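A quick aside before the break. I want you to see a complete sequence-to-structure record at least once, exactly as it would be stored in a machine-readable document. Don't worry about memorizing anything.
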Amino acid sequence: MSEDSNKELVDLVWGKKSSKGLVDTIFKRWMQGFVFSDSEPTALEQFEGGPCAVIAPVQAFLLKNQLFISEKSNWRTCQAEDEQKDVLCQTLADIIEMSNGPNSCSYCLASWLKGKGSQEPETELPAESSQPEQPTALAAEELGFERFHALIQKRTFQSFDALKEAIWDEYSIWKNKFGVLLFLYSVILTKGIENVKNEIEDAEEPLIDPVYGHGSQSLINLLLTGHAVSNVWDGDRECSGMKLFGIHSQASVGFLTLMESLRYCKVGYNLKSPKFPIWVIGSETHLTVFFTKEVSLATPETAGEQARRVFQTYDPDDNGFIADVLLEDVMKALDLVSDPEYVNLMKTKLDPEGLGIILLGPFLQEFFPEQTSKVPESFSVFHYNGLRQSNHNEKVTYIEGSAVMGFEDPRLQTDDTPIKKCLQTKWPFVELLWSTDRPPSLN
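That is the input. The structure line, written in tokens, reads:
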């Protein structure tokens, strides 16, 4: 990579003004590859806090392939390393392909360029091959932040097939010391550094927090949707003359966050109701994955759900109502009859007391009665947390459980755990029964 491109990439990911000491500390926490658990052959392990912003989305897409794309009878097994290689490489290829813009036909991989881009002697790196390769574990430990970035090369491919072949050929790189970072850089370079900058709300905000090491929402959204927008709502919004970007289409795998239960944000339909019943779960400091094989949870939205979603775009503060002057806009957006006389008639019917507001409930009952999705009364669920210390006996495994719907009576509630609070932002009356003595940890 050119020196300018290298600096742009580093500034975008790590920030321009971060102190060297802090960056080195955070960088070491991100120094890991994609490593499968010895206890759960399809689950990836995370060693330190921070890289869950990459590992959890990769795990979610890997599960999508195992549960719904693969023809294997048992999604939890990988009989040999070759099977793990295939499922991981296919997952990485899928995410890179998703990040590629509609007007671009090239793909990029970040990998190693031996002995170039640095003042230091080449003998610090392995000398067995002229091909780009991962430094040995010892050399990797010795490599600092600057030296590591000086040795990165960008490889460009003009077809997806060529990209896939290269991903499979470099499987050892994805497994080894810098695999997670090199994959993240591959996604960014394929997307285009300028394209990522243009989608981030604050271009000065790095993708990795230089103090705490967390991945930003822009980084998470980039890996989940291919778009590095900073918000989780549907579509774009205007705020004080600024255009704030959101999620424009239904995601393949979703996102739910504990922050919504605390009313810090509201996740839109496109992330909350993905094409596959798999959700990355965000807590204050960590990302995990909740998933199920129940495909009925990922059916297309009903007319009533669409109406609720459109109505809520005109109610960004989630008040449960809109000003009556907005009723015509909502009706037009839903392709309902919207000539002025009919709209005025509906205003009178939906706001008989003349308060100047239209409530969501009466609106849906008037235009979309009985239009609700049919969620099963109960179904099997699983939870994944890649941190060893967050798992029983420090073994990364999936925790199994059951979700039960419809218990509106508070006397029937089983617990008040963080994961339940998070899931209630999608299913308000869900109850969870886990196969373990303690509920899954979101941290």
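Two observations worth writing down. The radius of gyration is 24 Å. The chain has a mean pLDDT of 87. We'll return to this after the break.
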